[in-house]
Amino acid sequence: MIITKQKTPDEILDLLTGKSHIFIVGCGDCAAACKTGGEPEVKAMADFLKSRGRDVTGWVVPETACVSAQVKTAFAKNRDALKHSDAILVLACGSGVQCMRQNDRLSLDVFPGCESLFAALVGADGSFQEVCSACGECVLDLTAGICPVTRCSKSLKNGPCGGSTKGKCEVDRERDCAWVLIYRELERKGRLDVMKKRSAPRDYRKSMKPAPDLRVAKP
Length: 219
Ligand code: SF4
Ligand code: SF4
Hints:
The chain is of the alpha/beta class. The chain has helices at residues 9-15, 30-33, 39-51, 68-77, 79-83, 94-103, 148-151, 178-188; strands spanning 2-6, 21-25, 55-60, 87-90, 109-112, 114-122, 128-130.
């Protein structure tokens, strides 16, 4: 899931300077879970913009804002409202914003209402934890399923830096040292021999930006 936080009201008003007819798009998936772009947040944003003198021409919350087919359908159903708009405010992640831009046939200005923070695992208690940085060369088999690239403050792939104290990271004493967690988990599983294996230095070409466009092979 992509974790987002809404821009502040002042930032959003700044973005929309000179725009008076606003269509709002949310996302029923990640942004809804983050409470930044689900239906309640979109309605609250509409009320806020109206209270500041803007004309909200309409709003929609596609099931997933970064899926073109869903956005095309949502736009087709709201074509009249969009025709009377001069801007689209998107309460979703950056992929959602760009999906709007790519699928908007009216060439409206598209504005991001949220900041995209990171991809996260959602805990049973509803918490969000960043656990993967999409490095392109996964080493979880060597680290008991705990990512050193993401959870070690120095992204060390071959063991700890030596600065950990009482299991905490020297960079941030509030955080567990990722390598202490990895060691304990390997120990619990009787796999400490894995600690002796070495990972190759990170090959940044594998997480090259922009990533090449990929297609899912059809069966
Ligand atoms: S090793 Fe790379 S791909 Fe695997 S979880 Fe960590 S960042 Fe993600
Ligand atoms: S103390 Fe642990 S988590 Fe922190 S930088 Fe060193 S190895 Fe990484």
